[in-house]
Amino acid sequence: MKKFKPIFVLVSFLIAITLIIPAILVVPFMDGKASGKLGVDLSKPPAKETAAPSADAAVTVSVYRSSKGKIENVQLEDYLVGVVAAEMPADFNEEALKAQALTARTYIVKKMLSKDTTGVPKGAQVTDTTMNQAYESDDKQRADWKADYSWKHKKILDAVRATSGQILTYKGEAIDATFFSTSNGYTENSEDYWQSSIPYLRSVPSPWDKNSPKFNSKQEFTVSDFEAKLGVKLDKDIGNITGLTAGKRVAKVNFNGKILTGKDIRDKLDLRSADFKWERKGNNIIVTTKGFGHGVGMSQYGANGMADEGKNYKDIVKYYYQGVEVTSAENLFATITAQK
């Protein structure tokens, strides 16, 4: 039996080494501080990562809250989130939301620089209605979105922050970044809806809008109501359309010598669009329209369609606003802050 003793000792030694070496390697990390990387002093707490401050943080907007009859001072980033939440569905593509955030920031920056407070109560810079830009407070977003608040708010906030400090300019000046819901397949030249011809507000095709749930609509009027609203008297003909705009909307209609523009008719009948047709059925007039909104500038459903095809927010705004640039507004923010 003695001749097997050296082998037994050798085996025992190898087993011991196998057990002891891993233990030696592990012991230094068994004090409850075993997270981290080699070369890092684990006795010190890790440095906290902090997000870069938003460029929008420098500006505050005085918003007249129409339902409350009072003015609220809102940080620009929160204001923009509230505008995008009110003006565009949160389930739109992220790039469309960024485009909307960019137009909203451009609008308010231009308004604040010009000190234009037309129709705004004293002490405020803007209202919360579509007279300027619709705006919803955080409380209203929570009430409207309920269980969906968290993801919708974050998605819009991310879009606002992705465009932080940016505005749209034409030849160095902030533009009139007009927008609307749904085109009839084309946007409109500015002078076909308003008086001024603006070089960046040109008619462009917008085929994506045909997928909008607001693309087609129908309204019905009695003949007497139709006549009263338009201030006309009908005979066998309802009225003859005598011209179309560059955006394929009604330019003018002749009612037995009385000429009304398509915009006049849209406003007086409260139609969704100036692209309309009508027919008389007995004592009623049926009006069908294509599109929803004035048609000038960026189509929101068009923007979403472009984004779904892979276009980014800069592609979108440069398509709907011809010849513009995406520019830093930080110097303009400083001017706005100094004016207060």
Explain this structure.
The structure is a single chain. The protein is an alpha+beta fold and 340 residues long. The chain contains 10 helices and 14 strands. The chain folds into 2 domains: 182 residues, no CATH class; 75 residues, no CATH class. The strands form 5 sheets. The protein has a 3-stranded mixed β-sheet. Strand 9 and strand 10 form a beta hairpin. The longest helix is centred in the first third of the chain and has 22 residues. The chain starts with a helix and ends with a helix. Keywords: Membrane, Transmembrane, Transmembrane helix. It comes from Neobacillus massiliamazoniensis. This is Stage II sporulation protein D. Pfam families: SpoIID.
Give a quick summary of the entry.
This is Stage II sporulation protein D. The chain has 340 residues and is of the alpha+beta class.
